[in-house]
Fold these 2 entries.
Entry 1:
Amino acid sequence: MIRLGILGYGNLGRGVEKAAAAAEDITLAAVFTRRDPKTLKIASNAPVYSADDMAAHKDEIDVLILCGGSANDLPEQTPAAAKLFNVIDSFDTHARIPEHFANVDAAAKAAGKTGIISIGWDPGLFSLMRLISNAVLPDGNDYTFWGRGVSQGHSDAARRVEGVKDARQYTVPVASAIEKVRSGEDPVLTTREKHTRECYVVAEAGADKDKIAETIKNMPNYYADYDTSVTFITEEEMQRDHSRLPHGGCVICSGRTGENKHTIEFSLKLDSNPEFTSSVLVAYARAAYRMNKEGMTGCKTIFDVPPAYLINRSDEDIRAHLL
Amino acid sequence: MIRLGILGYGNLGRGVEKAAAAAEDITLAAVFTRRDPKTLKIASNAPVYSADDMAAHKDEIDVLILCGGSANDLPEQTPAAAKLFNVIDSFDTHARIPEHFANVDAAAKAAGKTGIISIGWDPGLFSLMRLISNAVLPDGNDYTFWGRGVSQGHSDAARRVEGVKDARQYTVPVASAIEKVRSGEDPVLTTREKHTRECYVVAEAGADKDKIAETIKNMPNYYADYDTSVTFITEEEMQRDHSRLPHGGCVICSGRTGENKHTIEFSLKLDSNPEFTSSVLVAYARAAYRMNKEGMTGCKTIFDVPPAYLINRSDEDIRAHLL
């Protein structure tokens, strides 16, 4: 049994707990939290420890999955944890990946551990599809579309606007843009042409709704580059219609071999973004454990992992039944 | 530069030649043929040698791509070639993969070479998707659909029927079956429910068309388990409408994490089946070369290859731009 640890018990941590329970070769050995461990109720019977006590449990855990955020948690936590454990994270701040990779690599190599960063579906499975597509069809272009799905970062941004009590944002790919890409037209698409944003907002009593809508639509980085719709709803409607975290998207590569065209498409349709992401994290935790056993230490990404390491089946079995 | 060799100059061999020309880090160093080398005209300037003389060129080639058929050529050729070169093949006789793997593994290990078998899109990229889907969503089912596209095996089988001058067979997935799978219904589908077969036939003058159609439709292994249509056309129509080799298909995995459903779909739409397959072979030839340099000898499959080895870009570059 591979003994798994979780650091951070939010949506992602709960998803990892669920995915670990579904894996026959994995057992959840510990949940670490920055809250008071006594106050944290978890779904399984795993012991809960303070995040400050991780070092005391270093020999009880084969792989630690870091379930914190990319902005503030992972840049510190993953390198620190890699001194103690094999680690997996879902770091998704693209611009900072080289720096994060270097930090985790140094810590993991010094400790003889294996770390795999930026695992999930994007970065993650979508990255893998971009790489494979580019390798197979060098004369081609790849396009990534996200949605329809909830962006928690954009929801949070809308929630910070004055007069907003609650908000939920859906990223929506533009169907006609996807069709153009699928048809092999190789279109040049602006940010605005690829996705729209739908914002559902519960306003505070007496708030100026026009001003809220304008503020959201013009918010730099988050909304200004998109066609955004803002729809005001009641708290009851928010609870009833927008309490789930669906997501998805697709990577489409259109390429040529001389006069012949080829299209490669990978798409996901997910009822729960955090639960699917967690399932990917757990499969790569299995890989980290195995790669470490074989002496492959240091920081890795999805590009470095032989796929056979992901699954709880023998090489003979997968060659006979999945190849 | 990686020096590539080709054994067998049919559709696949010509595709490899084209894919090698499109790769900046690869040069075609030799084409080996069982025909008289003097009679073989090829598209590039690579030297053409007799297949009997491969051993004399063992130091001129880094990876040999075997472009013969799975029924008669590859079971002999790949293990024999693995004594001389790193090798790649597209062996697709599923039942014989364990035996073929063992033969290539023994030959390659003894010679310190690396062989990767069963590369292409199915087996190949579709196998990879089946593995990843099963690893990420253990509580799920995967389905593979092929087409619409030309099956050369089924075309050949129809061509062997008495009174048939020429034939072309298209494998067609049943759209309603795909929709059922996509919707997460987890249907149990018979062979007949998944695909139909369309056969276009040029009959010999005076042949009994009813008899031809009946013979094709009832042919065991090839047609009897499918709903097959047989359409008689002229030689001109065959030439005009059916001279290309398009193909494609999809792998769909529908799975659950508790009450939440998720769908993973990978699909291909290919103008030329042999040219796309060749492009995959060339990417994996690059991987075989690199894996051999790092001492990973013996027989491998797509499940064993770290994706980073497939592409002609540095690890730093792919982490910064594809992750």
Note: The longest strand of chain A covers residues 247-257.
Entry 2:
Amino acid sequence: MSDDVPQEISEGVTKITDTKSDNHTVFVGPKPFMNYVTGVVMQFTTQSANEVVVKARGRFISRAVDIVEVATKRFLEGQIEIARDGIKVGSEEFENKEGKQVRVSYIELSLIRKN
Amino acid sequence: MSDDVPQEISEGVTKITDTKSDNHTVFVGPKPFMNYVTGVVMQFTTQSANEVVVKARGRFISRAVDIVEVATKRFLEGQIEIARDGIKVGSEEFENKEGKQVRVSYIELSLIRKN
């Protein structure tokens, strides 16, 4: 189930969510782990974001949690946290290349500045 | 990071959380996917649980989300849901076999009966 997410769908989601200009989103995929951690940290530090949403699908869900933990516990410890009600999980059904209905799970983790 | 969870630690967690007699917990590991889905469903149906917590560490986090989605959207659709504030993520540091400090992420998803 998890390995069945076509890349074009992941990219589609990123594009849709990025149309909101105030929306700081990091979409987790197969690039090196630290790319995503840096992406999150930089949005808070150099881009002055107040909220950064880390999204992932399928097998990248575990990675998204790792990235959030490293960002909050190591790089920006004491400065950012997971928002209250800031974790959502869900799933979407779509048709894969073989015409089969498959369900893919996703996670969204919302990080905010600590007061 | 994700693949560094020794099995004995995963099992330890299950044992600790299961000491509370009213606690229905499913700890996700490498067994066949449907074992865990059945585990969740059975606790609601044959064991009359009001809450079942699905826990996972490291790379099994993605699986835990898949299991919760299949249980809520397919097997017990309309009957159970993720509790409000029912998703927790976090991480723990521990020393691995080589004496190195490693951090492992975890997720806990709390499922309840729908009203």
Note: Chain A touches chain B at residues 1-2, 33, 58-63, 65-66, 68-70, 73, 82, 84-85, 87-91, 103, 105-107, 109 (CB under 8 Å).
